[in-house]
From TrEMBL:
Annotated metabolic or biological route of this protein: Amino-acid biosynthesis; L-lysine biosynthesis via DAP pathway; LL-2,6-diaminopimelate from (S)-tetrahydrodipicolinate (succinylase route): step 2/3
Name this protein carries in UniProt: Probable N-succinyldiaminopimelate aminotransferase DapC
Gene Ontology molecular function, alphabetical: kynurenine-oxoglutarate transaminase activity; pyridoxal phosphate binding; succinyldiaminopimelate transaminase activity
Family per record: Belongs to the class-III pyridoxal-phosphate-dependent aminotransferase family.
Assigned EC number: 2.6.1.17
Cellular component, GO annotation: cytoplasm
Amino acid sequence: MDRPLLNRRLAEFGTTIFAEMSALAVRTGAINLGQGFPDTDGPEEVREAAVRALRDGRGNQYPPGPGIPELRAAIAAHQERFYGHLGLSCDPDTEVLVTTGATEAIAASLLALLEPGDEVIALEPYYDSYAACIAMAGGRRVPVTLRPRPESGTYALDLDELRDAVTDRTRLLLLNSPHNPTGTVLTRDELAEIARLACERDLLVVTDEVYEHLVFEGAHLPLASFPGMRERTVTIGSAGKTFSFTGWKIGWVTAAPELVAAVRSAKQFLTFTSGGPFQYALAEALALPDSYYAGFLNDLRAKRDLLGDGLRAAGFEVYQPQGTYFVTTDIRPLGHTDGHAFCRALPERAGVVAIPNAVFYDHQEQGAPFVRFAFCKKTEVLQEAVDRLKGLAA
Ligand SMILES: *Cc1c(COP(=O)(O)O)cnc(C)c1O
């Protein structure tokens, strides 16, 4: 066969870096701070709820395509509880769609909303599925790069650059705040400006807010709550991130009825439905008291500080995350400039695995000296990682 098997749309996307780095972690026995999955499961009562559903025969056969009514009601109640004061609420029957993780929500949204050739603006560095899903939908990605600001130790969005990236072919903004991998949380002013731009240029927005409950300073502001955004925004959440059950792959979309109907059209032919018993369990999880959400946030904040201080002590320049469970570092103070080479050698040198940020860029050189560590791990694991990394400073 002369023709390559993998089609041109996907040819540029090899195996994800996470597979390579996780295999390296296993082979070397290094502590894996690469892939962002928690090393402790979520609340025991939520696991028990899944067991009960499974035993009681709830969800063992095809659940409804849009999600079980109990979970859609719980998602709507969650939106009302956390964002009702911002004027956001949603109808569980027409404005909520349960998906196979945020990953399917992103894929279905792009497959549903894009025509081939439509331009999609995404904030670079970006989550690895964005580029592949834009490509599968036949869209053209247009990166707008978040720039490191060493003086403040944060990343910043250049609103002029975003404005200039919009053309007559731009159909959609694909946003992510809190932002993986940089930990950036877009400010109220930035979100307001993005909303103005979207309205002015009549753009759709898909906003990945899977880290909505991991904003360390201040509160999460959904983009959909800004003027004019309700009818043009698809908002994505994930139980994997909020309840530390990443293997259950339950996510959701909330949006106006026309948008939900469009996304559902694509979703029904991807998986149709998934995770029956887990849907019942997560309906209960979303209703957990405020103490759960506060405890989760406080735990991750303490872990952010533990790892951040340790990385600083080891000689990294640390970009303090305002949200998510990732921290981006600059390796140049350690005398390195190539994050790829650094991450390949780190397991042998220090017994720790991290991810080179370059993989999250179209403009790889922009991310070259940056490396991402995940801190959604047990305190003793982070402490051990910090102890191992100390050797780098010597
Ligand atoms: C983890 C993650 C996802 C995927 O979420 P799932 O619910 O596991 O599919 C999507 N977007 C971002 C930014 C993530 O970090």
